[in-house]
Every structure is written in structure tokens, then in C-alpha cells.
Amino acid sequence: MTSTTSNVLILCTHNSARSVLAEGMLNHWAKRLGKQVEAFSAGSAPSGRLNPFALEVLQAAGIDTTGHRSKSWDEFTTPDAPPLSLVITVCDSAAAEQCPVFFGGSGQPVKVHWGYPDPSDTEGGDAGKRRAFELTRQAIGYRMLQLVQLPLSTMGKAQLQQALGEIARS
């Protein structure tokens, strides 16, 4: 990877919960640690709305959600889209979700799957959902913290792929 800023696209089918949590957490850690990493999120079939629990737990953690919106991955396949270094899918393949596969953009970014169960499917009313969203935010946040600490701008694709696999196992 040679660009100064590493652009990371985080995908989930509807771009309303997990991918939004990941975008918020990665941008938060990058800013806090002074790293040149920018996260974006999108979906293959965006819902057009953000889950209010996702916004609630991000805001409660002090994370700015200004500008977050549910959007299509098509925005990242145009010539004026930011060049992507990495694409992360966060759908839960164990729940038989159809996780998007990203083909667009210029060049081929490194791709990794870090699946998380959908906190929207949690039972227990609003209290149960809030807890599930907060636990998901924390789990995603831990991986994003590990990611942002990698020397992304100097890592080759194979080296990055190996490091991402190690993060997945942690």
C-alpha cells in the first residue's frame, strides 16, 4: 500500500447497524491515535436508514455520528471514489446471511470477513437490544483498534492479509 491515507470500506447487507458501528469505531480510533486511516461503510442492499440503537451506543461512547447514513456500495465503484486499501465484511455468515462480495473500485483492495451476529435480532425488548448493540460495538471496537495500530501504509498485501487473519483469531 502506498497512499498516505488508508481507506477502509466496511460492508454489511443493509448498512444500518454493524457496518455503521465499525465505521464509527475505526474513525474514532484513527482520529484519537493520529493515524491516517479513514473508514466508510456501505451495503449491497442498503436499508436507507440507520438503526437507532447503533447511533445510540456510538453516541453514548462519545463517537461523532454526524454524516453517517445508510448507502450503497455503488458509491465506491465510481472513478471519483476514494481508492480502497481494505474491504471488511461484518455480516454473520453463521446466521446464513448473504454477505456482500465487493468487486468495484480501482485496483483490488485486501478483503477480510469479520462476522458478527446481528444485534437487531436480539430478544429482550429495547433493553436487550441496547445491551446487544453495546456488546457488538465493543467487540468491533477492539478489532478496529488492532487494525488502526497496524503500519498500513507500509504493509504489502500478503503481510496485511496475514495480520488481518491474526486479528480475526484474537
Q: Could you characterize what this model shows?
A:
β1 (6-11), α1 and β2 form a beta-alpha-beta unit. The protein has a single domain (6-169), classed as Rossmann fold, CATH 3.40.50.2300. Strands 2-1-3-4 form a four-stranded parallel beta sheet. It is built from four helices and four strands. The protein is globular and about 45 Å long. α1 crosses α3 (125-148). It starts with 5 loop residues before the first strand and ends with a helix. By secondary structure, it is of the alpha/beta class. It has helices at residues 18-33, 52-60, 125-148, 157-169, and strands at 6-11, 37-42, 86-89, 110-113.
Q: Over all CA atoms, what is the radius of gyration?
A: 15 Å
* Spatial arrangement of strands, main beta sheet: 2-1-3-4
Annotation field: number of helices? 4
Total number of distinct structural domains: 1
State the CATH topology: Rossmann fold
Please indicate the percent range of residues in DSSP E strands (runs of 2 or more): 5-15%
CATH architectural grouping: 3-Layer(aba) Sandwich
Class from secondary-structure proportions: alpha/beta
Q: What's the number of extended β-strand segments? A: 4
